[in-house]
Protein: CPXCG motif-containing cysteine-rich protein
Organism: Zhongshania marina
Amino acid sequence: MNSLESIYEQCPYCGESIELLIDASGGDEEYIEDCEVCCRPINIVLSVDDEQELCVRVYAENDAY
């Protein structure tokens, strides 16, 4: 798997498609990135399973995950 992947997800606030540049080489990770359209903070949760498949979840700041 390449260490950097460009993926598109939907902003949980404005609904626009946003591009995320993901570094999967570090394994599981959680961080906050501002939406490039509405500038609100998005929680991004990355997980890599045993087969090196990347799973990306995006949440609004106050949503439970």
